[in-house]
Specification:
- It is a single chain.
- This protein is of the alpha/beta class.
- It folds into two domains: 59 residues, no CATH class; 235 residues, 3-Layer(aba) Sandwich (Aminopeptidase), CATH 3.40.630.
- α3 links the parallel β5 and β6.
- α1 packs antiparallel against α2 and α3 crosses α8.
- The structure holds zinc ion (ZN).
- Zinc ion (ZN) binds next to loops.
Length: 330
C-alpha cells in the first residue's frame, strides 16, 4: 500500500518536472491533456514566470502549419490531416500499472511463465510471454504494437507482460513490431506495413515473415479472442475519427463481451471517453485475417495520439482488464 502511494507521488513528481522542462507549446499541451487524466493539481505547476496572467497562458498557440483544435475537451495541434503527438516523457523500463491508475491488476495470483521467440535472429525478433493461471480457463492472445510508432499500444503491452491471472492462459507479444518500435515507425522496414501483410508468408519480406509467425502462433494457441492494440493519429474535421475505437470483423462467441465493453465506455465505467465501434478490419490486417481465416474474433483497440500518453495507456489497460475480468481470468 505504502509502496503504491510512493509510486504515485513519484509519478506525479515526474509529471510535474516533465511539464517544467517541456517547450512552451507542448508544455501547455501536456498540461491541458493532464487535466483529462485524473491528475488534478498538475496544471498548477504549469506556472513558469507568468502564473498570474490571463487564462490563455494555458492554451496552445498555433504554430506554422498547425492550427489549434479541441477534441473531447483537449486542445491539440492539427495540420489538416494528422494531429501533433504530445511530448512523451515516460520511461518504458520503469513503468508500473499504478502509474496509470489505482485499480489496475492489483490482485496478484500465482502463475507459471514460459517464453519463446518469434523470428529469432531477425530484425523483427520479439518474445511471446505465455502466462498460465492456476485454474483452467479461457485463453487470450494480446498482440501489441504491430505499428511501432503507436507507442501507447506497445507500452501497454509491455506492462501487460506483468499481469498475473487466476484462471486461463494469457499470451502477450509486445512489441509485435520490434524494429518499428525501436525506430518509432509504423513499418517493419522500408514501407512494409505488417498490418496489411497477414496471413504472411514464410518466404516473403520482413513484415510478411513476422505476420506469418504471429498468424501461425495464434493458429496453434487457438485463443478465444485476440486483442490487437493500436493507436490513431489522423483526424478529419466534422467526422468521426479513428481514435478511441474498438474495431472488429466478426464477434463469434464474444458478442456479449464486446457490447458490454463498448457500453462500459459509453457509461464512463471504463476509459477516459466513449469509444466508437467500427469494422471490418482492412484486408491483410490481423483483425480481418484471424477472424475470417481462423474463426477467431479479434478486437483492435485504437487510442488517439493527440491525447496525453498517460491517458492512452490507461485506456488500453482499462479495456484489457475489463475483458479479463469479464471472462473470469481475473
Ligand atoms: Zn496501427
Amino acid at each position: 500500500m505504502t509502496k503504491r502511494i510512493i509510486l504515485y507521488i513519484l509519478a506525479l513528481t515526474l509529471l510535474l518536472s516533465a511539464c517544467g522542462e517541456a517547450p512552451a507549446s507542448s508544455e501547455a499541451g501536456s498540461a491541458s491533456a493532464a487535466e483529462q487524466t485524473a491528475t488534478p493539481g498538475t496544471t498548477a505547476a504549469n506556472s513558469g514566470t507568468d502564473a498570474e496572467t490571463t487564462p490563455e497562458a494555458t492554451h496552445l498557440q498555433p504554430e506554422e502549419g498547425w492550427q489549434v483544435i479541441t477534441i473531447q475537451g483537449v486542445e491539440m495541434l492539427w495540420d489538416g490531416y494528422r494531429v501533433k503527438e504530445p511530448q512523451v516523457d515516460l520511461d518504458i523500463d520503469s513503468m508500473h500499472f499504478s502509474d496509470f491508475g489505482d485499480d489496475f491488476f492489483t490482485e496478484v495470483y500465482p502463475v507459471e511463465i514460459e517464453r519463446y521467440t518469434l523470428c529469432e535472429g531477425e530484425i523483427m525478433e520479439s518474445e511471446v510471454l505465455h502466462i498460465k493461471g492456476a485454474e483452467e480457463g479461457p485463453v487470450m492472445y494480446i498482440v501489441a504494437g504491430i505499428h511501432g510508432d503507436e507507442i501507447a499500444a506497445w507500452y501497454a503491452g509491455r506492462l501487460l507482460r506483468n499481469v498475473t491471472i487466476k484462471a486461463g492462459e494469457l499470451y502477450v507479444l509486445a512489441p509485435a513490431n520490434a524494429n518499428g518500435a525501436r525506430n518509432r515507425t509504423r513499418y517493419v522496414k522500408d514501407r512494409q506495413d505488417m498490418n496489411r501483410s497477414f496471413p504472411g508468408d514464410p518466404e516473403g519480406n520482413e513484415a510478411e515473415r513476422m505476420a506469418y509467425a504471429i498468424y501461425k502462433d495464434i493458429e496453434r494457441v487457438k485463443p478465444f479472442m485476440v486483442f490487437d492494440l493500436h493507436e490513431a493519429i489522423l483526424y478529419t474535421e466534422g467526422r468521426d475519427f479513428l481514435g478511441s475505437n474498438l474495431i472488429y470483423t466478426k464477434l463469434t462467441g464474444i458478442e456479449d463481451l464486446y457490447f458490454d465493453m463498448f457500453f462500459a465506455t459509453e457509461d464512463g465505467e471504463i476509459c477516459s471517453n466513449p469509444y466508437s465501434n467500427n469494422g471490418p478490419g482492412p484486408i491483410g490486417s490481423i483483425n480481418n485475417t484471424v477472424a475470417n481465416q481462423l474463426g477467431i474474433p479479434a478486437i483492435t483497440v485504437e487510442t488517439f495520439r493527440g491525447f496525453a500518453i498517460e491517458r492512452r495507456v490507461h485506456d488500453q489497460l482499462d479495456i484489457v482488464q475489463y475483458a479479463m475480468k469479464y471472462v473470469g481470468m481475473r
